Amino acid sequence: MGATVFELPLEPAGVPRGRAMIERAEWAARAFATYDAATVARIADAAAQAAAQHAREFAEAAVSETGFGVVEHKVLKNIACSTGIIETYRGHDYVSPRIDEVAKIVEIPRPAGVVLALTPSTNPVATVLFNIVLALITRNAIVVCPHPYAKRVCAEAARVMAEAAVAAGAPDGCIQVVDEPNIALVDALMTDERTDVILATGGTAMVRAAYSSGNPAIGVGPGNVPVLVDRTADLVRTAERIIESKSFDHSILCTNESVLIVEDVIADRLLAEMRKAGGHVLDDSERDRVRTLLFPNGHLDTRWIGKSAVEIAAASEVTVPARTRVLLAPFELAVPEEMLAHEKLCPVLGVVRVPTAARGIEVAKAVLRISGAGHSAAIHSTDSATVMDFAAAVRVLRVAVNVGNSLGSSGIQTNLAPAMTIGTGFFGRSSVGENLEPRHLVNFTRIAYNADDRERMGDFSGLSPWQAPQGPVPAYPYASNERAASVTHLATVRPEAVGGSTDELREEIRRLIIDELTNLMKG
Prior knowledge:
By secondary structure, this protein is of the alpha/beta class. It has 18 helices and 16 strands.
C-alpha cells in the first residue's frame, strides 16, 4: 500500500503577497523608529514637496480615473494635504523626548510601527498624501491600499513620495502601495498581527471590517451634514459660502452640506441670494425627477457621485442656467423615507423651512438620526446662544460656524486640524473623535519618578535615544525572497511579484511555514 501524500491547500494569491508587504514594512518601521528629529523632518519635507510638485498631475489623473470632482479643487486639496500638513505641524516634535520637571515625568515618543491605510475613491490622492505625510512625521512605515476605482493614481502618488523619502534617507519599504487591490490581499493586510494600526477612510462596510480585523483601527463613519441658517445670519455671505462649499469638488467631501435648514422669516431672501451665487431652486416636479435619478429603489446611484449640478439636471430633464453650481431641493420632513434627507455626495442640497431656530435644531437632530452621527454640522448665525444650543443638541463632534462646512470641518478654512480623516467618536462608533492628527499615530513610554519631593529627578536635558543614521540606508534584505527584488521598485509590490505560478505559490507557502516553525522553536 503506497504512502499517503498530503498536500497543503493553496492560499489565495493575495495572502503571501500581503504578508511579504507587511514583513517589509515591519523591517522599515524598526529602522525608522530609531531616527532623530532632524532626519525625520528632512524626509517628511522631501516627500511632501514631491507630492506638491505633482499636485495638478495627480488631480487630473484622479478625475480621469474616477470620473469624480473638479481638477482645480483637487489641486487645492493635494497641496493642502502635502506641504500644507508639513507647514501646519512645523515645529511640532513627535520624535524627541519630552521632559516635565514639575511632574517628574519624561515621555519618549514611540511610533505605532506599521500603518495600513485604506483610502476611498472620493478623495483618493488627498487622503493618500495626508496619510503618508502623517506616517512620515511620526516615523511610521505605511502600506497604502487604495480603492479599486482610484488604484492607478494612488499608486503613482505613493511611488513619487516613496522615491523622494528614500532619496532623503528613509528606510526602503517605509512607503508601500497595493497596485491591484483584491479581497484576499486586503484581508491579509488587515488581519496580519504585524499590522499595528489600520486607518480606514471610506464606507461603513470598510470601517466595520477594519474594526473586526483583530488589529487596532481608526475608522470614520459617513457624513450627512445639516446646516442651520437663523434670522441673524448675514444672508449674502451665507449664501455665497454655502454654494461655494456645496459645489466644491462637486460635493465629494464627506463634510459637504446635505440639508439646509432655514428660518421661514428669511428663507425667501436667502434662496434669492443663493440663486445669485449659482443655486437653482427646484420646483416640486423637478425635485421629484432629481430624487428619482439619484435614489432609484431607495439607494444612492453612485454614477452621480461627484458629478456637476448641470449634468445631474440634464439627466433629470430639468432645464437650468449653464452657470448653475448647486440644485436646491425643498422638502417637508426630515424622515428616513425622504431620500433627500440622506447623504448626497453631489451638488444637490435638501432645503427645509422652519418657523424658529429652536425648531431648526430639532430638524438637524432628525437629519443626523438618519445618518452622520458624530461627524459634523454647520450653522450660520451671529447669536452665540443659538450657536451654543445648536452645538449642544446635535450629536456631532465638530460644528463649523459662518464658514462653508466642506473646508470648515475638514480644518482647511478653520483652525481645526486639517484632515481627510474625520473621527466620529462615540456617537459614530469611532475610536477617535477628532480630525486625525500625527499624535494619533504615536504612543509614549513614560518615565515616572517617585512623586515624593525628597526624591530628586535625574537630569535628562540633551538626552535622546534616537540618532541620525550613519551612512547610506541599506536596501531591504530580501533573503529568501530574492525574486521580489527584480520586480519591486522602491515601494510597490506588484501582482506578479509573488503568487504568479502554482510553483511560486507553493514555494512562498513553504517559506512562510518554515518561518513559522522557526519562530515556534525559538519560543
